[in-house]
Amino acid sequence: MTGDDLTVLVDRLRWDRRRDPYRGRREYSQTARQVAEECDRLVADGRADLAVPMLRKAVGRITRALMYLDDSSGIIGDDLQELMDLYAKACVAALPNPLSLAGWLVKLECDGPGWPRVRLADFAPALGRRGIAEVERLVAERARVADPESWTGAFAVRDLREQLAEVSGDVDRYVAVLAEHLTNAVQYQRIAEALHAAGRRDEAMDWARRGVAANAGSPYTDRLRDLLVDMLVAAGDPPGAVRVRREEFARHPTAGGYRSLIDTVEAAGGDDPTAWAMEVLRDRITQQPAYASELVDMLLAVGRDDEAWQEALHHRRWLGGPQWQTLLERRVATHPEEVIQPYRDLVDQAILNSADKRRYRRAVALLPALQAAYQATGEHAAFGQYLAELRVEHKRRPTFLKTLDAAGL
Q1: With contact defined as beta carbons under 8 Å apart, do 242 and 265 qualify?
Q2: Which of 154, 155, 168, 182 is CA-nearest to residue 190?
Q3: Which pTM value belongs to this model?
């Protein structure tokens, strides 16, 4: 492909804001991928200097286009990030003007719509000392004039400051910048990981502990807690690792928390915590019955199926459809007569769930298991009678009847 052909291809990435946002998305993505392939070939052939201006132009056009076309699938956003990453690779190979590159990156991050992701580490070799210094200067200037009420502006400046600290290689500077905004477990995790990578294990564990304590109820804390547990085991403190897991389970007793506790005990050593965990969970159910679903999952996990079944019957309202299906699939082998009515209840619930567009297919998908349960009890004719009653009951739902007929039951 000639340079002119590539120019024509990049020009096809223009998007008229008046266009239907839902038409032509597949073709647009294909064009973006073709640009990436051609530019990648140029870089591989030692002609990165030709790819650099084409890639910057392509990134700019797709960035603008995403403000007007529908990308709910995220496919074109992925195409854009691929081109951005390729642009960084081309810049490292061609070494464009570092001041111009620095200005473009800061403008994209601070004035852009929030995409693509700017990764300074990828551009650092191309920026060099002059470019990095220019980014520092521009970010400081942006920080002075930024509107404190603008969340996007404040985020962009903070993000660039954190990235600058990271590429500087100065761990203390990086930690200090991250510590300015300790609003969630992710910041603590990044600090702990940086300190651990630098061989400063005790400091890393201290930051991890602080983060876990400060963000106990956040879903983002799970990874930080995993990191802390791994560091404690590596540091020769298995009891400390198990203690972290037990404290979390006592705070929020779930089947997932139990699995994490068991995994840590198996890796680090210690007594089987199952009896203790069961007691904690049963006590919590007396205060918060919704935890019954966690108890059922936990009982199934340890092979106590009969207890799980009894708990499910006792706390039926707190169990969802998928959980009931799991219980029924395990119960049918030993007690087929007990699963017939629950399966019928699930079928009814699916049919009547007007919020689910696929409700009829979900209902019909349950019928083979119900049929097998009837057959296991020896009541071969009962399933046919049930289907006849089902047709009569839902005779005013022609779509359901068609779905049922298509199943060939």
Answers
A1: yes
A2: 182
A3: 0.85
Amino acid at 54: M
How far is residue 393 from each of residues 266, 269, 359, 368, 405, measured CA to CA in Å? 53, 58, 16, 19, 15
Residue 57, amino acid: K
39-74 pLDDT, tens digit each: 999 999 999 999 999 999 999 999 999 999 999 999
φ, ψ of residue 306 to 5 degrees: the values are -65, -45
- CB burial class (10 A; 0-12, 13-18, 19+) of residue 215? buried
Nearest to 338 by CA among 301, 309, 305, 314: 309
Q: Helix crossing, 255-268 with 238-251: angle to 10°?
A: 170
Residue 199 identity (one-letter amino acid)? G
DSSP 208-262: HHHHHHHTTT-TTHHHHHHHHHHHHHHTT-HHHHHHHHHHHHHHS--HHHHHHHH
203 close to 195: Cβ distance less than 8 angstroms: yes
CA distances (Å), origin 220, targets 76, 185, 246, 257, 404 = 27, 6, 18, 14, 43
Burial of 197 (0-12, 13-18, 19+ CB in 10 A): exposed
Tokens 């956040």 correspond to 218
What are the tens digits of pLDDT across the range 197-233?
999 999 999 999 999 999 998 989 999 999 999 999 9
Q: What share of the chain is helix, strand, coil (3-state, %, to 5)?
A: 75, 0, 25
